Protein: RidA family protein
Amino acid sequence: MAVTLVNPDGLPKPEVYRQLSIATGSKLVFLAGQVARDAEGNPVGDGDLAAQVEQAYVNIGTALAEIGGSFDDVAKLTIYVVDWTPDKMPLLGEGVSRAAAAMGVDPTKPITLLGVAALGEPDLLVEVEATAVLD
Structure:
């Protein structure tokens, strides 16, 4: 694995993400934002934020597996949530936990969480963009 996750002294140490990642690999991978669509492009989790988060994370893992990596190689995530409010955090966490269990990975990456008015299609509640580093 080319990515080491760190919560440095002098900064808060959140349980759900890490403050930084140290990448030592030689190949940078920039994934397009992943959404709640299965391999055939069918919608997943209509109206269910946790299910959509889970699918987006699993899609990232699937994309990385195709090129010899895994979700463990993710160095940074940007998560876009439609109409974000803090009360949605448990649903976000549930989706992340379910994806982590399904993939057998540690999902605690450095993240940026952004609330947005809308995404590319009206049924989408979340989009997750990833940067990964592979050896």
